[in-house]
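Quick entry between incubations.
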Amino acid sequence: MNRRQFLGIGAGALAAAGLTSILGGERARAATLAKSGLRTIPTFCDLCFWKCGAVATLRDGKLWKIEGNPLDPLSRGRLCPRGTGGVGATFDPDRLRRPLLRARVRGEEKWNAVSWDDALGYLALKLEAIKAAHGPESMAMFSHGLGGNFLKHTLKAYGTTNIAAPSFAQCRGPRDVGFRLTFGDDPGSPERTDIANARCLVLIGSHLGENMHNTQVQEFAQAVGSGATIIVVDPRFSVAASKAKHYLPIRPGTDTALLLAWMNVLVTEKLYDAEYVGKYGYGFEPFAASLAEFTPEWAYPETCIAPEIIRETAREMARHRPATLVHPGRHSNWYGHDTQRSRAVALLNALLGSWGRRGGFYVPAQMDLPGYPYPPYPKSTKAKVDNPDQRHPFAYEALTTGIREATITGKPYPIKGWMVYATNLVRALPDERLTLAAIQELDLLAVVDVIPSETAGWADIVLPESTYLERYDDLNVELFREPFIGLRQPVVESPDDQKPNWWIARELALKLGLARYYPWKDIEEYLSTRLEKRGYHLADLKRDGIVLGKKQPIYFEDGAPAEFATPSKKIEFWSSQLQQHADAHPGVKGFDPVPRYEPPEPCPSGAYRLLFGRAPVHSFGRTQTNPILHDVMPENELWLNAGEASRLGLRSGDRVKLRNQEGIESLPILLKATERIRADCVFMVHGFGHTAKGLTRAFHKGASDVQLLTRIKVDPLMGGTGLNDNFVSVVPV
Amino acid sequence: MARFAMVIDTALCVGCSDCVVACKTENDVPEGFCRDWIEEEVRGTFPTVQLTIHSSRCNHCSSPPCVSCCPTGASHVHEGGVVLVDHGKCIGCKACIEACPYDARFSHPDGYADKCTFCIHRVEKGLLPACVAVCPTHCMHFGDLDDPESEVTQLVRSRPYHVLTPEAGTQPNVFYLTRGR
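Done. Structure below.
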């Protein structure tokens, strides 16, 4: 090869100027590959909820690899390690192969393989029996991700309204509620964070780079590369912390104290965006007055962050505003008063004028694509079961843990069946004992999944789903920087008797006599119907994987609408909704119209606060048997401060167990003695320590954080479960 | 003659292992093995800590001990300075594995010494190595050091860098950029 050819790499593939040239290039590339026995098929990823556009390559008809789709604004042509390793899901020897009916007692994991006809017939009979005895609302569904759309549709047509996802009460719920109370809208998924253009990025407990949300990580690297000031607040010296100008090693659970002190500095020193606040703010004066007591000196003993550092970082944020992004995070159920902490994050951004601004939070756009015109669902006469009397008045999605509680207590009415799609509930909800107690009350536990999870192990019937590379799904129409529609389409066939979720949902509906809810015969007809309504064609999406809409202004300064769906139609520094609730329920705690600080419980002596997070090569507990990803990270480690480890006579590589405040012990886990964490907490990556017998590759590798999370503080505003309030001792094995 | 090199900006690397995974699928690297990997180095005491992360692989040295020690000529220098192993000629003696100061080689289950090829099969088609093409942080660059206009030449000319184990005298062709902070 000569130099001229080589230069083509930089000039062509990488620096393609516009979309047309990328499109042309991609189509030309596909044509060239075809001549060499290779075939490419675009689709989108399912290794996490980011749903990146991807292109699979087949070699001699067999799946070889998956890469990012250069046309896709989420992946920008590069997948994360999980997405790149996604091919492993198709040849995972542990995957489910055929429908399974429980042989004897629940949880024994003994099965009889049955036909789809028998499996769905059994399921339909059970559903009919629950409906006849208790009403359709007594059948609940738990779901994760886009793949649940069709099963949710069938269950809604059957008549239930009790459908929940752990993504709310166990993950991003408090964040979204806190931002909605403030701006009238939430940061969304994918988040509307303009990291690429931020001049100052503040991460509070968010560990981008370990937490591999693709576009965000790409933009994080852009921000680091362009010299943006990075401020990281974390009890653990994360990878992001290693890129930071300021690393603030905060005492766990005191973030709100820091946020209040930062806001105190901005207000006292008049460093906030007065024009923005004046134009868009509501209730600023009383809010500002409420901050008076929260000086950096006040925050110091709480947070362990010195007053001069608090001042310096606040001034640094102000210097770069409005291009200062205080990242909203995602998993925000930490301490049980998380909505108020998220309110403080939102308000800090409001003071910096970053919401709606370049380098802050952009205003996202979405393709106008209506849903399929189904007949209306049956009207339910019962209120949803998860949040009786609206005790958590700002829960705008159903609470998984509320459904679990109703299942155990039978109140406000019994829940007798669970349909669980693609979420490992036993490991997604805190306090496994309660989940198992709830399962004992069920007449039916049905699981639809790709792998035999712990939850599948407790099921009466397990339905094996095709992996994302073997199926169509619903269209991906997200709010993002630019509007787009993404198509997931099968790249290879399922190896055994697995079926796509749309087929399972449709066949179940037919068995339940709900044919009128499935006017379409197959998924392509469904997709075409949706697409053609707006003049798009399935054939185009099958070829390119994506259609892009017209770009719109995404910053206020460029003409994006500055609208706030709050009662005052403004950014609520003083929350009128919280004020109203506090007035109506005097004596009820936690509903302060401005955020207040609640100190965390002190760590008992000899114990450590248990913290958990993500690793870049795994998603939840769903990827540990993927042969490629397992190879890169087969188990998790327990991070313990090096000084503490040596005090306990422990070294890296030792096996230890964790014992929580109730005496519950973890599986053995490898110790990582490290200078990268405070001495009052320990950390592990979530998703390991599997105990399901069918997950042979992952079985008993590492430990599960969730099994130790038995002390849960519930957010009064929205019912989220604070997961960072458990203490463990470290026991040598 | 080209002289292929890789330039890695450690300030951007988050150690996500995407380069490892992409290499494994691109090159059908068998389970339990990898041709590239992530190394982390921690210095200091909490909270004054420095963490450096880098993606490692065969350095495609200009003075490769793995080639000079190979008794059969299986280990050889290909066009562009890329160090390769001719599987057919390799007798699996593992001398090269011992000789490599970077521990970049392993014994493939099929009996030959295996390692990073700079994805020469892709480079010859005008593509980037799989690890470079996948990197979500764009921290890796690949190109021809003999070309004064190439990105890699520009980078090593304008930015401070280091190579791994320079004392081994191997003249590595993987360069790590360092950034003053």
